[in-house]
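Note to self: user wants both folds in one dump. Writing first protein now.
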Amino acid sequence: MPERLPAAAAHGARERGERRSCPHQLPGLLAALDRYPYGCTEQTASRALPLLYVNEMAISAGLDTDVDVRERVQTAIGRVLGNQGSNGAFGLWNSYGGSDTWLDAYVTDFLLRARDRNYDVPERAMTAALDNLENRVAYASDFESGGEDIAYALYVLAGRAAHRSATCATMAM
């Protein structure tokens, strides 16, 4: 059952069809994600991405933490990197499968977030993934519609650039 919202907020949420989740729903949601039966690159990253934050969320919700989270995320990182080609792109099921700009942006986003949370992401793999995104953006055709994949790639690259700029500014002090 969703937690109670103030009347005005609840009215607005109903108009938009929104619901707020209760903290006690977190274990069930994570279990459903963990039981997802397939393991392509996107699904592996999708299963692991919330695990980057699960223990912080559990603590703030007064729930027990998961002691196996780090190992599970690190295993997912290894599996995802096993599907990375020599050009830095990610195949859906293996390293030599066709790649997709959105998938490359999504997996690179996951790897950057994991690395920022002190998971082991090899520098060579990270550099190749970022170089691949830069190349995809640089060689993107003009388009009249769509472009969501390029926008996501730009978002990932912009976030990384901001992170690098902040690091450089800190080092210059």
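First done. Writing the second protein, which came from a different request thread.
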Amino acid sequence: MEIIILKKSLQGAHKVQLDPLKLFSVIFVMLLLFTGAFLIGGHYGLKYSTDMTSVRYQEATTLQQSELDEQKLVIENARREAQENLDALATRLSKLQSHVMRLDALGSRLAKMADVKDIDFSASVPVGVGGPQEPGRVQDSLGVPDFLKQLDDLTVEIEDRNDKLAAIESMLMNTALRDRTQPAGKPAFGGWISSLFGFRTDPINGKREFHEGIDYAGKPGTVVRAVAAGIITWSARRSGFGNLVEINHGNGHVTRYAHNQENLVAVGDKVEKGQPIAIMGSTGRSTGTHVHFEVIHNGKHVDPIKYISVN
């Protein structure tokens, strides 16, 4: 095989005579050089690409781990805050339970005051609590399901106590109203009983007649007082009674105060127990200064002495 090499000036030429063996050797060497260069370039290129991929993966992994750590911190803070709030609510719940126990104790005392036996406050009696803690058996804090259950139970207890206390309040109000309107005590202070209820010799005509009240004597000017709260239904003169005051106390009770020198109230007035209603005198059919005091229950005269004795 001949290879002709021309110069740049195109003047002259060289001929190189290559036999097949030399030509094959040259081509083989060139192929080796090209293959080696390709392999070396590919190796370094692959290594560079692998290194870049590793760096990027490491950066992505680091960023992801950082974000996960931040999320864990946020979750932990939220969990801790929620637990702290739950613990605070549990403490408040415990205080409310103690308050309910005190209300129960108060309810028991009020029930006794109102003489109520059909309202049960037996569960209200505070019991002794305490004891040592056993290792491994102490719950760190109250869980949400336990807290909600105790809250529901407490709500039921509070509603129950509210109903019972409302019933006792109503009974106490009725008792207080009954105490205010129940005739009791003396119609005047500083006097004395001069004539009792029942048959007696009439001081005017000397005949035996039934005395429907008691006579309570005193000095002129002595204040006559209501023995219970009520409404004035009469305040004027009446035959035989002179100046008369009549009070309706409700529950079928009516009281009368007669022979007054002066009445201090008018019909329709509301009076309280112990309030002055008249000045003791001797008007009407009377022999001296006193108040004729009557108690009428359900339309019938009753002995006032038992009401005077209850003060």
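Dump finished. Worth passing along: Residues 192-309 form a domain with the Glucose Permease (Domain IIA) fold (CATH 2.70.70.10).
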